[in-house]
């Protein structure tokens, strides 16, 4: 009888063990399938082509199209960063026209280097009066006869680039205008993605002027990437596109908060962004960043003045990623040029934009 009870007990234990193992295997397989589906959905980003399209404003693109640009930028950085790959992309027939209202070291060097790596050719036009032309539309049409893509910046009117694109028959890319700087905003997103290994549900802070074109682009980009965005401006001035940004935030289930003071924006922030300004009480310093997330990062579009940030933050050996962001601005610019002139697909696995 005792042996029979022992056998029954052993059988029950085996049965429980088998059930536990079965349950664990089911959970394991479900997790594998979930991860596989996430990777599969990420791989679909290669199909989000923007070939032939203007790249003027963030609002013109879907979240997956913007993620595809970031993925391509990472791919190009991985390919060329260590200089082990010396071959170009082979775009020998492509002519990149750079149109500037004034000389700019950063923009000119970025386009020249991108041209070299893409294996293309470039033509640089610096004309302070190009926006004052009687017909900017005709300027776009004329430059299209000589170009595969036009990369331009404007300082006089946000309407200038739209008129240029209206006349152009080739893609027009916005290097910066009075109301938007999409490439700088994407460069920041790439830097945060590299540093934090994700974007969704992170907390990003802006401390600076309400009229900044960088803020204008961040307000439209962060919701599409499902990043929580906290910003503070002088006298709580409201940016012109805040209403549109709030609609995007509600649609993509992210958060946008316009707060009163810099310390409110920076509290628990994963990334802190500013630009050159002289707003009193808006200097980012050690006291403020001590209340940020443990591994906070600092970003600035350059050039820097002493009024908006202290040396402790700007020169922080671990947390200041100012120069990496400047480099990533280049990779994003190159990625947008490449994707507007050809249907390029990244060769590296897609980054995980969320931690799920």
From TrEMBL:
SUPFAM superfamilies named in the record: Aspartate/ornithine carbamoyltransferase (SSF53671)
EC id: 2.1.3.3
This protein's record includes keyword Transit peptide: no
Statement: the UniProt record of this protein carries the keyword Nucleotide-binding: no
Keywords assigned by UniProt, alphabetized: Transferase
Gene Ontology BP, a term: L-arginine biosynthetic process via ornithine
Pfam families tied to this protein: OTCace, OTCace_N
Domain Aspartate/ornithine carbamoyltransferase Asp/Orn-binding: 202-338
Catalytic EC class: transferase
Domain of life: Eukaryota
Record GO cellular component, one term: mitochondrion
Example GO molecular function: amino acid binding
Domain Aspartate/ornithine carbamoyltransferase carbamoyl-P binding, first and last residues per copy: 53-192
Similarity-based family: Belongs to the aspartate/ornithine carbamoyltransferase superfamily. OTCase family.
Name the UniProt record assigns to this protein: ornithine carbamoyltransferase
Species of the source: Ladona fulva
High-level lineage: Eukaryota, Metazoa, Ecdysozoa, Arthropoda, Hexapoda
């Amino acid at each position: 009888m005792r042996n029979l009870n022992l056998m029954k007990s052993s059988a029950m234990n085996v049965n429980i063990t088998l059930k536990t193992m079965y349950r664990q295997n089911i959970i394991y397989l479900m997790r594998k399938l979930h991860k596989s589906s996430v990777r599969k959905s990420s791989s679909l980003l290669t199909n989000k082509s923007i070939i032939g399209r203007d790249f003027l404003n963030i609002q013109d693109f879907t979240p997956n199209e913007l993620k595809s640009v970031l993925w391509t930028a990472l791919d190009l950085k991985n390919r060329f960063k260590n200089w082990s790959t010396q071959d170009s992309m082979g775009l020998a027939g492509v002519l990149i026209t750079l149109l500037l209202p004034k000389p700019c070291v950063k923009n000119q060097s970025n386009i020249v280097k991108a041209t070299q790596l893409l294996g293309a050719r470039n033509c640089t036009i610096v004309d302070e009066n190009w926006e004052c032309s009687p017909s900017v539309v005709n300027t776009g049409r004329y430059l299209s006869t000589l170009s595969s893509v036009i990369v331009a910046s404007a300082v006089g009117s946000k309407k200038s680039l739209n008129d240029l694109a209206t006349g152009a028959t080739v893609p027009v890319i916005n290097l910066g205008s009075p109301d938007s700087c999409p490439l700088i905003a994407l460069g920041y997103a790439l830097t945060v993605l590299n540093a934090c290994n994700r974007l969704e549900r992170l907390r990003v802070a802006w401390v600076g002027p309400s009229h900044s074109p960088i803020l204008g682009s961040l307000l439209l980009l962060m919701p599409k990437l499902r990043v929580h965005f906290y910003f503070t401006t002088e006298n709580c001035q409201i940016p012109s596109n805040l209403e549109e940004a709030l609609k995007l935030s509600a649609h993509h289930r992210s958060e946008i908060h316009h707060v009163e003071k810099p310390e409110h924006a920076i509290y628990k922030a994963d990334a802190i962004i500013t630009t050159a300004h002289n707003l009193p009480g808006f200097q980012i310093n050690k006291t403020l960043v001590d209340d940020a997330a443990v591994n906070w990062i600092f970003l600035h579009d350059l050039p820097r003045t002493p009024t908006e940030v202290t040396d402790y933050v700007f020169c922080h050996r671990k947390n200041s990623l100012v120069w990496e962001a400047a480099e990533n601005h280049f990779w994003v610019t190159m990625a947008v040029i490449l994707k507007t002139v050809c249907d390029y697909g990244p060769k590296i696995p897609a980054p995980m934009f969320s931690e799920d």
